[in-house]
Amino acid sequence: MQLSPDEAAAAVERNPCPKCEVPAGSVCRTRAGKVAAKYHTARFILVPALREDLAVTVPADRRPGSAWTPGPKIPDETAGQPGDPIRIGYARCSTTGQDLDVQLAALRKAQCRTVFSEKISSRVKQRPEFEKALALARQIKQAAPHQPVIFTVHEYKRPARNSAELMALAADLETAGIQLELLTGPLVGIYDPRGAGSMLFAVLANSAQLDRNYIREKTLEGQAAAAAKGHHGGRPKVIDDDMLTFAQALRDKGTPMPEIVKKLTIKTGKNTGQHPSVASLYRALADQATA
């Protein structure tokens, strides 16, 4: 650490705290209204010399644990003087079988101070680490409006799954004044949603939707080609056509259903060699009747 404990405390107190909302010049406070023993992370991380520290303690002369009173107001010498950009990184892959190492290495190389990552399916609407990354970026921007904050991702598909989500993200970043950085792909760079970069979000939205439409079309074409060759997706039938014809003949003769299933044997799947259930036979006969 480049600062002594007292210097670190003075540097932290030059910024208002976004968590407990104390003004500049005052120490952090607890929910009980007492002086906190440590400054809140979202506050001391704004000081470049302290970003690598895990905690900054409140000096004893600030009386931790005592009733909190506001400190003297101090002039904001940093207003209008932005420091180095603060990058918040986010990495995601869809399944546990995929690897995040490439994304994480790229985010570290981009000098992201904090990186959030998760392995979660694109079908899941709630992504906890994604929400945490955005929340931290918003907290830092609120605490220091003059400070550039950049939300960094490996590619545009990581934070959004479709055009609707991408446009929602664009609106969120624009409201908070947070920039977006893409490390790979055809649109590498940093984009400010309030500047010329606002055009990017419309392009990304169209690209995401086009990608999904292309994948869907190719999937449907593959299914049609397989069906033309007699290959159909899904699990194999428990009761095939031959078994169904035999069961129908027995039923027409008045054979009870429990006795019919004992004469049938499943030929494929994990239940090979077993008898189908009475319910399965009823469903198969009903489907045949309505076909």
UniProtKB/TrEMBL annotation:
<dbReference type="InterPro" id="IPR050639">
    <property type="entry name" value="SSR_resolvase"/>
</dbReference>
<dbReference type="Pfam" id="PF00239">
    <property type="entry name" value="Resolvase"/>
</dbReference>
<dbReference type="Pfam" id="PF24623">
    <property type="entry name" value="Phage_zn_bind_8"/>
</dbReference>
<dbReference type="InterPro" id="IPR006119">
    <property type="entry name" value="Resolv_N"/>
</dbReference>
<feature type="region of interest" description="Disordered">
    <location>
        <begin position="63"/>
        <end position="82"/>
    </location>
</feature>
<dbReference type="InterPro" id="IPR036162">
    <property type="entry name" value="Resolvase-like_N_sf"/>
</dbReference>
<protein>
    <submittedName>
        <fullName>Recombinase family protein</fullName>
    </submittedName>
</protein>
<keyword id="KW-0238">DNA-binding</keyword>
<feature type="domain" description="Resolvase/invertase-type recombinase catalytic">
    <location>
        <begin position="86"/>
        <end position="230"/>
    </location>
</feature>
<keyword id="KW-0233">DNA recombination</keyword>
<dbReference type="InterPro" id="IPR056911">
    <property type="entry name" value="Phage_Znf_bind_put"/>
</dbReference>
